[in-house]
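Sharing in case it's useful to others searching the archive later.

Someone asked me privately for the predicted structure of HTH-type transcriptional regulator, so I'm posting the question and my answer publicly. Question first, with the sequence:
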Amino acid sequence: MPPVREEEDIREFPSLGPLEAQVIQVFVDGGKVLGLPRSIGEIYGLLFISPEPLSLDDLVERLGISKGSASQGLRALKTLGAVREIQLEGSRRCHYQADTELKRLVGGFIREQVSPHLESGQTKVARLNEIAGNETDPEMRVFFQSRVQQLEYWVGRARIVLPLLQKVLGE
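And my answer, the predicted structure tokens:
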């Protein structure tokens, strides 16, 4: 059974057609799973379904979001490698286009979002090992140490798998 949507999850886009609105919702939902702000999913979704590159002002107008939110979202998407800037002949404005190559999207997400957390996770797990070893109750110490070892194993596996995944995707 699909999850029930809360009213605030569904947003109307009066200036967009039903297909565009549904595509945007797909990317909003996907971004939510990855912990990304709604505006990033909206911006990428509109750029993905747009046959022409769009300017910042186009995004603001068509999505009904603030200029600041659009600017921040574009900056984040550029950092992830999900959008690229396009200069249109005869226009002084910068336009944007979705990059639809899966390897760049996944590679950018791993590089910008997952890898930094893995690095900090390794440091945190080392600290957890120290704390678990200081537990005064012997039973709890054994339990905590086993859980910390499990975390160490997961972090170690992720450090092996992520570079392989990036290599497979051609990043």
